Amino acid sequence: MVNKEVEKVIVVRNAKKVYRMGTEQIVAVNDVSFEILKGEFCCLLGTSGSGKSTLLNLMAGIEKLTSGQIIIKGKNIPKMNETNLAKFRQRYLGFVFQSYNLMNSMTALENVEFPLVFKRVRTKKRKKLAQDMLVQVGLGNRMGHKPKEMSGGQQQRVGIARAFVAKPEIVFADEPTGNLDTKTTMEVMNLIQAIARENNQTIVMVTHDPRLASYADRIIHVLDGEIEKVEVLHDITDPEVYQRRVEEARAAAPKLSELESSADPKKKKHGHKGKKKAVQEMKAGSEQSSDQKTQ
Do the domain assignments include residue 96? Predict the structure, then answer.
């Protein structure tokens, strides 16, 4: 049985973006139209300079359309002012960036908590939500670490935890594995897909890599600012197809979540308490080292 009532969460109509450089005009996005369904994993696939990242930025309201329409959750994004856009992003959108965009002065836990501060979630609750999210992404024993104390893959998983902690309806991911090796790339993709499937969230991902595009339900091929073709790999309006996609994502996800959290089950179980103990041990070790140097 096919469910034809799946919500169209993103509708793009005749979107055009023109940059003006002196007297020259550069058309980055040219008369593009498409729709994205709720719970769909959609990929914008294209080479560097194809206009795919510009298109993502237009949908997120980071850049303004020259002409056309972008409707998300019934809201006309180009018509919104910055204040309303900020509120809209906080309520509905999450972001995963290629460069992680973590706050270097904050721990992993504090970075994941950050979006919840703006949503005015109470301190105790947001710490618990952030802790649970870090455990889910396999970083239960890295909560007290700052970005520079983690590998690229770990930092990206913190970024994923931050993007998903508030359970946004839509997550925009711009080349989310661009700085990672092949093995870590697959782990991160499995994680993004698993979390989104469990919560029926919509993913819009930009990539140049056909291997990553294979995770999607729909691939929109972008070339020279235009849509070259659209591939529907999985029709999620069919409940049986969507359920199968959920089960496939669940099967792949544990490979990531067990990587590091299983290395120290005690820290995984106790979360923040384990982090405090680790900090105390580090301080004790530092003091001992200092005493040895002065003797």
Answer: yes
Structural domain of residue 234, as residue ranges?
A: 40-65+75-263
- pLDDT of amino acid 286: 42
Q: Examine residue 35 and state whether it is found in any structural domain, yes or no.
A: no
What's the CA gap between 207 and 86, in Å, rounded? 25
The pairing of strands 8-21 and 24-37 is antiparallel
Contact 29, 16 (CB under 8 A): yes
pLDDT in tens, 246-274: 999 988 875 544 444 443 434 434 444 44
- Assess if residue 215 is contained within a domain: yes
**282/290 Cα distance (integer angstroms):** 12
Three-class DSSP category at 19: strand
User: What letters, b where the CB count within 10 A reaches 16 and e where it falls short, cover 30-54?
Assistant: bebebebbbbbbbbbbbeeebbbbb
How many structural domains is the chain composed of? 1
pTM given for the model? 0.82
Interval 24-40 mean pLDDT: 96
Which candidate, 84, 17, 72, 41, places its Cα nearest to that of 242? 41
